[in-house]
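Same chain as my last thread, 260 residues:
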Amino acid sequence: MATSVVYPFSKINLGLHVLEKREDGFHNIETLFVPHSLCDILEITDVEEAEAEGVSLFMYGLPVEGTPQSNLCVKTYHMLSNQFSLGPVQIHLYKNIPPGSGLGGGSSNAAFCLQLLNKHFKLNLTPEQLQGYALQLGSDVPFFMQEGPGKPYLATGKGEILTPYHLDLSSFRIELRFSGLFVSTAQAYAEVVPKKRNLPLPAILKEPIETWKEILENDFEETVFRKYPQIKQSKENLYNEGAVYASMTGSGSAVFGLFK
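reply #2:
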């Protein structure tokens, strides 16, 4: 019985500008995706043909809302099985990355599951084909298609247009804080107020990190902090502990601090 295991990593956002709402209902953004070492564990195991059909999902670790059919790993399997002959599998997913935290756990699971199924069933999909499937699963799924631990990428468009970006954070440690709250990405986008920027994000990121506190913003903070003051307090706590820079990641609820 063949088994394959991978470790989907998480990400933080350095700056997150919501620039405008698009005609397709999505938003144009600019952000820097930075990989983080917090990871889930994803295992795919073959099942005897006589035992089952299709895909079975087993979840462990942190609780996740929704049904198995709404899980992005299951959706990934069904998306591929519509075009390829896939044997039945069990997917075992251990959640360390809190859902609704803005750390990209669900998207990372989808990306790693896509790559794992490609290898497991020897589909021989090209990198371009894999990226096409990734984009069908979510705007930030393509970022997680790189091998872990990954590199920072500047993300524009819906978050799917990726440009490699060199950023040396080796003299800092990144600390995460979780409030235990679940923030809906869809709800956060529905409430955010888009705004154009005079200064593009890459220009802001080139400024000394010590100045980021005043100039590097996550546009979701305004509405999310108003709704969930605990998250705002978590950010303030990081500054009180000596963080050089602190911010919410994604649409929340996790916050992170950069410490010397």
